[in-house]
Specification:
About 45% of the residues lie in helices and about 25% in strands. The protein is globular and about 55 Å long. By secondary structure, the protein is of the alpha/beta class. The longest helix has 28 residues, at about 240-265. The chain folds into 2 domains: about 1-180, Spore Coat Polysaccharide Biosynthesis Protein SpsA, Chain A (Alpha-Beta Complex), CATH 3.90.550; about 185-265, no CATH class. It is built from 9 helices and 8 strands. The chain has an 8-stranded mixed β-sheet, with helices on both faces. Strand 6 and strand 7 (about 130-140) form a beta hairpin. Helix 7 runs parallel beside helix 9 and helix 8 runs antiparallel to helix 9.
Length: about 270
């Protein structure tokens, strides 16, 4: 059933900068659930397109390939999700691998016609599990929960999700392996890149950031991250995971340094 009812929506760019091997694993694992893919190339300068074309032939994919260089990543996923013609939309990043157990579980549950699959989503640095979470990455086309936001990491419409009844949602027992960070050096480089993107968004909106708002926001975010990492996030219940939670906090604040730099350069 899944092969006819699910389409993957993916945004990719310069996959060889991360790991060509892991990207191939991502596409290969996903193709075991469905052959339908909408892939948006976000301006690659390496051999990303060539790799995708080879995988299309090797795995016999039903592929729609687009090029769109806009930096509003979550907005692009929403735009191209509108091109899906199947019953379900599965939003997948190029560093997420579906476990065989998850594929089997989804296939068994599709007949129940859930509107949302809240999928177990585990993050790894190298081979080390550092955080566990759940994400609503698989959902029915008639109940598209993508927000269409042009802000980074505002992918889902939380208000729309809240309106769903419990019997419309299925929480998976098995995981997507999020392997975005081969090592710590790549983690820091990637977080700097995202901080710069968020700073550019603030700059376009000409946001006025006061010293008081920064201090209050920092104290609040610190409190939330400590409480979350100690009591709610299973993957954060060890020392490295705890440190990782504070790295996530620093990523949110580095954008203000980059924003300050943009404002300063604009005055020259």
């Amino acid at each position: 059933m899944a092969k006819e009812s699910i389409t993957f929506v993916m945004l990719v760019k310069d996959i060889t900068l991360k790991s060509e091997k892991n990207f191939i694993k991502t596409i290969t694992s996903a193709s075991r659930l469905s052959k339908n893919f909408i892939i948006v190339d976000n301006g690659s300068s390496d051999k990303t397109i060539s790799i995708i074309n080879k995988l299309e032939k090797k795995l016999n994919l039903n592929l729609q390939l687009f090029e769109d260089t806009r930096k509003e990543f979550d907005y692009l996923k929403y735009v191209y999700s509108k091109k899906v013609s199947t019953q379900y939309i599965f939003v997948l990043d190029d560093d997420e691998i579906l476990s065989p157990e998850l594929i089997h579980e989804i296939n068994n549950k599709l007949k129940k016609n859930y509107d949302l699959f809240n999928i177990k989503w585990n993050t790894y640095i190298g081979d080390n599990l550092i955080a566990e979470d759940k994400k609503p990455t698989l959902f029915s086309k008639r109940y598209n929960i993508l927000s269409g936001s042009k802000e980074l990491h505002k992918q889902y419409n939380k208000e729309k999700i809240k309106k769903l009844k419990p019997n419309q949602i299925y929480n998976t027992k098995h995981e997507i392996q999020h392997i975005s960070y081969p090592d710590l050096d790549f983690l820091f480089k990637k977080s700097n890149l995202y901080s710069k993107y968020e700073a550019e968004t603030l700059f376009k909106k000409n946001k006025n950031i006061t010293f008081l708002s920064l201090v209050l926001r920092y104290l609040f975010e610190c409190f939330i991250y400590i409480i979350y990492s100690l009591f709610f996030a299973k993957g954060y219940k060890h020392s490295f995971g705890f440190l990782f939670s504070f790295h996530a906090l620093s990523y949110k604040y580095k954008k203000y340094f980059f924003y300050w730099e943009l404002k300063k350069n604009a005055k020259k």
